[in-house]
UniProtKB/TrEMBL annotation:
Pfam families: Iso_dh
Taxonomic lineage of the native organism: Bacteria, Bacillati, Bacillota, Clostridia, Halanaerobiales
Protein family according to the UniProt entry: Belongs to the isocitrate and isopropylmalate dehydrogenases family.
PROSITE patterns, alphabetized: IDH_IMDH (PS00470)
Name under which the protein is recorded: Isocitrate/isopropylmalate dehydrogenase family protein
Keyword Oxidoreductase assigned: yes
Record keyword Lipoprotein present: no
One MF annotation (Gene Ontology) recorded for this entry: magnesium ion binding
Alphabetic keyword roster: Oxidoreductase
InterPro entries per UniProt: IsoCit/isopropylmalate_DH_CS, IsoPropMal-DH-like_dom
GO biological process: isocitrate metabolic process; tricarboxylic acid cycle
Gene3D superfamilies: Isopropylmalate Dehydrogenase (3.40.718.10)
Record-annotated Isopropylmalate dehydrogenase-like domain positions: 3-331
Length: 335
């Protein structure tokens, strides 16, 4: 029995979270879900969109499955998603890009994992106007954050039997900031070359990397990069494997792991039994691997691939007309 925090989220969150919990139970994994609430909808009840119980539960269980949470526009309301990552120091945003359904992928050879540094870079939000005619944004790259994200990518490569780590940067132009990231990436790679010589290391300039991902994806395995590049490259990757409805993710710190889909709360289809639960389900599959439930993870992954490849029960985003309930049932029937 595993203890896992569940934040169902809002919008389509509750529908897809329930579907995922049902499929995991059907696969025979026993999880004691510690359900906690967060988001704009709980403001009246708790006086905050992010009650302390959420952190208490995640800190206790160390593992959470999280549905999407809406960030209201123009309300001075900070993103609950960002606040969770910050408070728990989840510095690695990780997006595995794997082809599960041939019909939806742009290239069948894609099997890589993007490690995005999640705490600094251009996303520290330090900006100002310079007079009326210009604006400046400050990009921060530290040795500490660079070292730990690259280390995290190597540790993952070792754990998952991956063969190569590629550091992605623009150090040819940004010689100080990206130069420092690359220098630390090379330092960490030199350390791992002593203990794990089987893992290859190289580096690529980010624009070239984007082209390579599309043209020669088979040459890449684990990619690690600063925040902004990670944001863009991982969405490019999501597009290559079939879009938002299929793209899973996880946020890792030193001890805590929070698993969530790449997509948001899809308010346009919320409550209509139309949402595709697969991206959150693939995130849960990553969680099961983290919990060492490999056999169940493989079985769920295969059941989903079978349903998608058969092409009979597909949600609207994948060009079908099946409901959330129908695709959930089809996956369970395939388990
Ligand atoms: P979105 O991902 O919610 O939706 C984009 C489009 O994709 C919509 O048309 C939606 O219907 C569709 N879509 C997304 N997920 C789907 C699924 N599982 N099945 C079927 N269709 C799906 O992006 P958005 O509209 O830009 O954001 C909506 C809200 O979600 C915003 O408030 C945003 O801040 C929030 N958001 C949260 C997270 C998170 O919780 N980690 C991530 C991204 C966005």
């Amino acid at each position: 029995m595993h203890n896992v925090t569940m934040i169902a989220g809002d919008g389509i969150g509750p529908e897809i979270s329930n579907a995922v919990a049902e499929i995991i139970a059907a696969a025979g994994v026993e999880i004691n879900w510690d359900r906690v609430e967060a988001g704009a909808g709980v403001m009246d009840k708790y006086g905050t969109p992010l009650p302390e119980q959420v952190f208490e539960s995640i800190r206790k269980n160390k593992v959470a499955l999280k549905g999407p949470i809406t960030t209201p526009v123009g309300s001075g309301f900070r993103s609950v998603n960002v606040a969770i990552r910050k408070e728990l120091d989840l510095y690695a945003n990780v997006r595995p890009l794997k082809v599960h359904a041939k019909a939806f992928a742009q290239n069948q050879a894609i099997d890589m994992v993007v490690f995005r540094e999640n705490t600094e870079g251009l996303y520290v939000g330090i900006e100002h106007y310079v007079g009326d005619e210009a604006a400046e944004s400050i990009k921060i790259i530290t040795r500490k954050a660079s070292r730990r994200i690259v280390r995290s990518a190597f540790e993952y490569a070792i754990r998952e039997g991956r063969k190569k780590v590629t550091a992605v940067h623009k150090a040819n132009i940004l010689k100080f900031s990206d130069g420092l990231f690359l220098e630390e990436a090379r330092n960490i790679a030199a350390e791992y070359a002593q203990t794990h010589p089987e893992i290859e290391f190289d580096d690529k300039i980010v624009d070239n990397m984007c082209m390579q991902m599309v043209q020669y994806p088979e040459q890449y395995d684990v990619l690690v990069m600063p925040n902004l590049y990670g944001d863009i490259v991982s969405d490019l990757g999501a597009g290559l494997i079939g879009g938002l409805g299929l793209a899973p993710g996880m946020n890792l710190g030193d001890e805590i792991a929070v698993f969530e889909a790449v997509h948001g709360s899809a308010p346009d289809i919320a409550g209509q039994n139309k949402a595709n639960p697969v991206a959150l389900l693939f995130s849960a599959v990553l969680m099961l691997r983290h919990l060492k439930e490999k056999e169940a993870a493989d079985r769920i992954e295969k059941a989903v691939s079978d349903v998608l490849n058969e092409g009979k029960v597909l949600t609207v985003d994948l060009g079908g007309n099946a409901s959330t309930d129908q695709i959930t049932e089809a996956i369970i029937a395939n388990l």
